[in-house]
Amino acid sequence: MNPYFEQPGEWHHFHFCFLVKLSFAFSASIAEDYDVDFGHSESVPPHRWLTIEHRRTKKLTTIVEVLTPALKGKDRGAYLDKREAIFSSDAHFVEIDLLRGGEPMPFEGCPKSDYRIAVSRVMQRPNVEIWPFDLRDPIPIIPVPLKTSDPEMPINLKAVLESVYDGGRSELTIYDDPPEPPLSKSHAAWAKKLLAPAKKR
Q1: How far apart are CA 100 and CA 127, in angstroms?
Q2: What is the pLDDT of residues 111-140, one digit of tens each?
Q3: DSSP string spanning 162-182?
Q4: Minimal CA–CA distance to 122: which of 150, 94, 148, 91?
Q5: What domains are defined for the chain?
Q6: Which residues contact 7 (CB under 8 A, 6 or more apart)?
Q7: Over the stretch 172-200, which tens digit does the pLDDT of each residue have?
Q8: pLDDT digits (tens, 9 = 90+) for 39-53
Q9: Of 176, 187, 48, 180, which is closest to residue 101 (Cα–Cα)?
Q10: Are 2 and 165 in contact (CB under 8 A)?
Q11: C-alpha dihedral, 100 to 180 to 183 to 161, nearest 10°
Q12: CA 77 to each of CA 44, 83, 97, 154, 200: distance values in angstroms, whole numbers, following the listed order
């Protein structure tokens, strides 16, 4: 993950672009029986997420959330209520946390990590599959569950991230200020080494 996207002035734009690129990745990989769309909240603007719906039955199959600083902060209570409602529904749930800052969402037995991705499948609840990873780890390819009769859809989040970075000319802006939260000494040295070629472009 690129920690520089987490700066307050960058994350809103990154989140929007990441959701759009993720929806493109879903649409390119998913069967024609499904539609990918955006959900939005009236009570927590501009909260957006992705939905996957079965085209013929119009049944909501999967909800995909990419967490924001607000959802891990001031809007946490409302989001946790929504999350519990999803866990009681018949829709699968994918939660993507690419933020080092803020208190992680509660999952029993989840090890401490910089980032985490959780997949809650309807037929396996209350069990949740979690992929914890740290700043210098590869972003995992995750399986997105659909109808039980259909295979899960693997999504390469690293490729989505790179398409956001390359398409938005992010190197012109995101490296002007240090990451928030601050990096550890070893991670800062690692990031500095990686940034040298980017700043020469």
Answers
A1: 24
A2: 999 999 999 999 999 999 999 999 999 999
A3: HHHHHHHTGGGTTTSS--SSP
A4: 91
A5: 3-199 (3.90.1570)
A6: 174, 177, 179, 180
A7: 678 888 888 999 999 989 888 888 755 54
A8: 988 766 688 999 999
A9: 180
A10: yes
A11: 60
A12: 11, 10, 16, 30, 43
Q: Are 2 and 190 in contact (CB under 8 A)?
A: no
**Going by C-beta distance under 8 Å and a sequence separation of 6 or more, which residues neighbour residue 95?**
65, 67, 83, 105, 117, 118, 120
Collapse the DSSP code of 39 into the 3-class scheme (helix H, G, I; strand E, B; otherwise coil) and give the result: strand
Instruction: Note whether 64 and 52 are within 8 A (CB).
Output: yes
> What type of residue is 106?
P
d(CA 201, CA 195): 10
Calpha distance 67→57 (Å, rounded): 29
pLDDT for residue 171 is more than 90:
no
CA angle 147, 153, 143 (to 5 degrees): 100
User: Helix (H, G, I), strand (E, B), or coil: what is residue 53?
Assistant: strand
CA dist 44 → 77, 83, 154 (Å) = 11, 14, 30
The structure's pTM equals: 0.92
pLDDT at residue 63, rounded to an integer: 97
Environment class of residue 102 by beta-carbon count within 10 Å: exposed (0-12), middle (13-18) or buried (19+)? Answer: middle
